[in-house]
Amino acid sequence: MTMKNHQITIFDLARELNISKSTVSRVLTGHPNVHPDTRKRVLDLAEKLDYQRNMIAIQLATQQSRTIGIIIPEILSSYFPYVIAAIQEEARNEGYNVIISQSNESYETEVTNAKVMLDNRVDGVIVSITKETLNFDHLKVFQKKGIPIVFFNRVCNEMVVPKVIVDDYEGAFGAVEHLILSGRKRIAHLSGPSSLAISVKRLNGYLAALKKHNIPADPELIISYDFSKEKIAIYVNHLINLKNPPDAIFAINDPTAIDTIQIIKKNGLRVPEDIAVVGFSDDYVSALIEPPLTTVAQPVREIGITAAQLLFDQIKKDSSQWKTPVKVLKTKLIIRKSS
Amino acid sequence: MTMKNHQITIFDLARELNISKSTVSRVLTGHPNVHPDTRKRVLDLAEKLDYQRNMIAIQLATQQSRTIGIIIPEILSSYFPYVIAAIQEEARNEGYNVIISQSNESYETEVTNAKVMLDNRVDGVIVSITKETLNFDHLKVFQKKGIPIVFFNRVCNEMVVPKVIVDDYEGAFGAVEHLILSGRKRIAHLSGPSSLAISVKRLNGYLAALKKHNIPADPELIISYDFSKEKIAIYVNHLINLKNPPDAIFAINDPTAIDTIQIIKKNGLRVPEDIAVVGFSDDYVSALIEPPLTTVAQPVREIGITAAQLLFDQIKKDSSQWKTPVKVLKTKLIIRKSS
DNA sequence: CCTAAAATTGGGAGCGCTCCCAATTTATTT
DNA sequence: AAATAAATTGGGAGCGCTCCCAATTTTAGG
């Protein structure tokens, strides 16, 4: 029961200056047609009275929330915080607020979050889906209502809207080729859930690199998993104990790669001597672990900025002029000691 | 220019059912005094027409934004994301939205962000200040306007409001005592800016531990720095090259400790054999680096939950009943290989 | 000095909803 | 069946602001 002391409104300012609220509104919104003297008087009084505009009223009147939403699967790895930071920066420049929601990799939560965004009348959303998301009705609603939506990282294939991704295929290809060129013969791949396009693309990059170098793909060495921490140990141990174990592991992402390294070490094997490991994303941690992780770096900042720009492009234009570009950004292989 | 297709309002529902908007409003807000049949008819139609309530209008009418703000210095280390995740969870349970803003350790930005929160009429804020924040007028405004505010981690001493902190003194004391008990004689301390209470408290804990064990504090071994990455190398190198160098370093936080380890290693010295290192916070990274970092763990989840609860306590009560508890949570020393 | 044009201001409806109070309908009691 | 109480509904003002259109004032032109 927040007892708000009566707030100062434009009407108060108007009364005090003996002018109309319309005029006050004009100067406060930076409208040009107002006498310089009047403008000054209003501004001075607003300053003096510590007037604070009520965005909620403005939003209602203008039918714009000046808020964008970000829906992401998690915030605890370093990839998303960096992207978010970049998005927020762009949003601030445009004078927009940002509502962030984590889905915690849960489809249900993602649906709820989308609903909340809708309730709050966001002017646009930037989303990266959960590993569980197979149905996209909750996101198509935005399209249907004419609310701009932009995907990044984990995108929805069946929706034709702007997207920002990296060249996962090429990134994976480069990483695996690097392993091959450094003499690895049996390269395993810890893949992600096949529902995610990034999983498939990285897997394809992996397969293509093998093929190019005439190494037959061994199904035994390809494991698709659902990002659950507990499972990694099982899979890595399984790989290690094969009669013909891998001499390298290419992991779908850095957290997986890092855990993989821990488990390999726990088994008394050495990285990279016995098994080389390569990850994807260049998390903040990756340079710090022992051995430092070879990984495919993503331009996180650029991803965030691009996504935000694509969104604001739409927000500013009439929906009839919307384009649906898919920006594919370049990755960069960072070779460290783990390979 | 988002072309919003005319949205369905409670008035539309009312007209369709031939009842008044008041009644529709009643059922939609869960008001009890409404005939069950009517309730059902309204709910069914709302469902059928995919009615979506307009939170902005509700906010204006009720004078409540149902939004809380979080102001933090940064989001890129793992401490804050964890705390935020916990706060968001609590907020969701209470039906509140969350606006997050990073100050990037800049006072200016913090002031701007506070203003944005005010513009958006947040019902409360949870804040952790930047290292630069010495003036608190921008935060006192919340108090003045009767908007609940709760501090955590980096708190403002001159404001009497609820706070959530950990026992920094004791945490530091325990960490340093641990170093002493494991035989270290010359323990340096990389402290934070003295403007932050946590810096002072951790420093005091450090000093107290030395005192207890009759080790004279050597000013040469105590360095206060401003969290700037570049400086760490300078300071650590300086310490190493003293005629009488330290055999242990207690760092104000984990990022500092981690960088310290890197620099020590770069100098050809071993951790912990030559110099032991202890950090503070138990960042996600800390267990993964080589050697794994001994650190003082903070109950991040509990911190977030507690802060949120303290905030909602106030939001729900009249300001006359506000209490100003300072919750001091326990830390836990996690001993790993770096000491 | 009068008139037309330009600049500036005011009035008022409207954004979608809540909530108080009064009106109406239904149920209860004697 | 009348009178009263309880349940349900409707009306309308108000939240703080924007923005269109009309009114007023100022400036320019002849």
From TrEMBL, chains A, B:
<dbReference type="InterPro" id="IPR010982">
    <property type="entry name" value="Lambda_DNA-bd_dom_sf"/>
</dbReference>
<keyword id="KW-0805">Transcription regulation</keyword>
<dbReference type="InterPro" id="IPR000843">
    <property type="entry name" value="HTH_LacI"/>
</dbReference>
<keyword id="KW-0804">Transcription</keyword>
<protein>
    <submittedName>
        <fullName>Transcriptional regulator, LacI family</fullName>
    </submittedName>
</protein>
<dbReference type="GO" id="GO:0000976">
    <property type="term" value="F:transcription cis-regulatory region binding"/>
</dbReference>
<keyword id="KW-0238">DNA-binding</keyword>
<feature type="domain" description="HTH lacI-type">
    <location>
        <begin position="8"/>
        <end position="62"/>
    </location>
</feature>
<dbReference type="Pfam" id="PF00532">
    <property type="entry name" value="Peripla_BP_1"/>
</dbReference>
<dbReference type="Pfam" id="PF00356">
    <property type="entry name" value="LacI"/>
</dbReference>
<dbReference type="GO" id="GO:0003700">
    <property type="term" value="F:DNA-binding transcription factor activity"/>
</dbReference>
<dbReference type="InterPro" id="IPR001761">
    <property type="entry name" value="Peripla_BP/Lac1_sug-bd_dom"/>
</dbReference>
<dbReference type="InterPro" id="IPR028082">
    <property type="entry name" value="Peripla_BP_I"/>
</dbReference>
